[in-house]
Amino acid sequence: MQTNQILAMFGGALLLLGLVAFFLGRAKATRVRAGGTAMFAQPDQYAWFTVLTTAGPALLVSAVGGFALLLLGAEIPTLYLLAGSLVVACLGLAIGMLMVRSDFHARQAIERVIRFVLAGAALISIFTTLGILVSIIGEALRFFQMQNFWDFITGTTWNPGASFLEAAGRADEGGSAAQFGSVPLFAGTFMITAVAMLVAIPIGLLAAIYMAEFAPSRVRTLAKPVLEVLAGIPTVVYGFFAAITVAPIIVSVAGFFGFEASFNNALAPGIVMGIMIIPFISSLSDDVISSVPDSMRQGSLALGMTKGETIRDVVIPAALPGIISASLLAVSRALGETMIVVMAAGMRPNLTANPLEDMTTVTVRIVAALTGDQEFASAETLSAFALGLVLFVVTLSLNLVSVIMIRRFREKYRVNNL
Amino acid sequence: MSQSFDDISAQLKRRHRKSARLKWISMGALGLAGLFLVLFFADMLVKGLPAFKQAQIQVQVDYSEQASQLPLAAVNEDVRSLVSRGYLRLIPGRMEDNPELLGSTRLEWVLADGQVDQYLKGHHSKLKAGEQAVVDRLVEQGRAELRFNTTFFTSGDSKMPELTGIASAAMGTLLTLLVTLSVAFPIGVMTAVYLEEFAPDNRFTQAIEININNLAAIPSILFGLLGLAIFINFFGVPRSSPLVGGLTLALMTLPVIIIATRTALRSVPESIRHAAFGVGCSRWQVVRDHVLPLALPGIMTGSIIGLAQAMGETAPLIIVGMVAFIPDVTTSFTEAATVLPAQIFTWAGEPDRAFIEKTSGGILVLLTVLITLNATAVVLRKKFERRW
Q1: Could you tell me the pTM of the whole model?
Q2: Of A3, A86, B31, B339, whose CB count within 10 A is highest?
Q3: Domains in chain B and their CATH numbers?
């Protein structure tokens, strides 16, 4: 028989048992109550309790069995496993029926089970983080067994070259030895992020100042969602826009001033990424500026400062932790941005300070290493995980610093809505 | 030494001018962002709208014996290079399905070659001067024109620009989002309910909270690495399938749904809970019968926004292999599939210029769906928002 059929039959049988449990449990509870005994719970609650005792252990057994089957490679035939689970379900039904008594708190028992299940769901987010950590660190360690960690961090040549031949056991056929020096990748990432920040921080911050301090409320309610649209456009669309529309403009502008620019220059993805990031900065800065206490503004104005001076010398310094926090979040977002750079930045690792040349980034190399038809164990494929590890550590630290700064701001001015 | 009133008022004027300048500069910054948005949409519309039209030409199709063997023979030699080769290839199959076609000659509107299409739209095309003259003559006779491009919405990917469409990618997106929603929505809502209504304020709860905030800020590509290492290599979920793509996106969407649901739960006033507890409800009964129904609009809004985000995501899906070439529409969760953003990415990499138009067309479709989803979320929020 097909596994699918067996699974369907198992599901059907379990459903049937659950139904039986529900009606048996309810019938018994109703009977006891009709006999004149006061019960701790409603018949329906006893019914649901018997359903839980029937299905819960059975599902648990089959899940554990399936886990063992898949992960530990244990040899348990699916048929026996599911049959065993059904036996457990019948046992559970019997026990559940025995527990339907007048002095049993069925509602509290259900409550405990629900609390347990909800906590289990909450654990999944922890497992996700652990999963990311384990998968990235595990593969990165394999990479660092092949390559020197120090060379990876300080090397200036990224040339995965013939590493796939090595993985295939034909190392002697390849030409040059593979080199994994990640400095050019970090330099490229840094350059594009810097361009993005040069675009995003001034525009985002000024827009936030306008919305929080100058704009009439109608402009504000209109401008906020319009800016949010910028953040909602898929990054693949931005990437296409950067590559097809912005890059040629930059090449011709640079040509006009007598510079030679590559079509994969770092400016185009940087500028477009900056535009994408504007709402991240403006929205958070706007909230922070709006929550600077009005008493500070009133004090400043009472001393004869103009509105502009008040903003520059009182409001912005007070909101600075929040603004820095927003900028750090934006940097972390720019570092991890993938599609824009994959589509608009170059593929060639290039250590240069000229943003008109093509350069590549960490995320581009991750995508490049994982999209070809490659042996998974090759150093190039595994290098993606080493790069991912660096990315993870950097973005995580940026986020943590950002959270700490915003918390400091919140505690200083006792704001709760941030 | 004291300043005269004139000096002071001049100084004051300067200071107020400075203040006004800040206002104009900051207004300009906001305007700049708005201007970019307008330019962006205009650019996409100009590039993408032609994709919804496709050139068709009227030719004599000769369903002869020879054409069933050699489809090129079905059309006259002078227009042969103008007809889409993909269309010609279908002729023998159509003749098998409809035997009565054999031997007949019909005047039919057929799909033109991609180059004819580009020529008619006024773009650069590789047509030779002679072919261009033929096309011009056909246009004069009313036998060549741009018609609504149904192929774009009904067919899958193809290497020939005139035959490509978004149908397979749209189906892939639908299947992937189904997986995403059915995993992320229940788990997200359950987590939020636990954290808001059940959890004691201890280390474990705080750890989960910090962790969720961190997950929301992790670059999406790292979720792709997780999907590759855990789902594909460890659990053996088929690569490129909507299942693995949906699971990966579900983990990404989870924090969005959790955070939105928590906000919605928090906005339900305590008095509702107190009243329910007061009449003897247990905690779960309070949540199920009173808090959740009141928080539902907020939860739905958050989920739709999370779903829209997942729909536009590409990077993690590329890592788990969802950039496959999928010519046929499949409805299986475990077979290779592609999604709209990944299809856009694939097309963007095609060297043929005609694909720029298709890419922009795909982008327009994607943006339309996303804007509709977000607008629905906003309308839902406006309609059901309650001030307590």
Answers
A1: 0.87
A2: B339
A3: 50-149 (no CATH), 167-384 (1.10.3720.10)
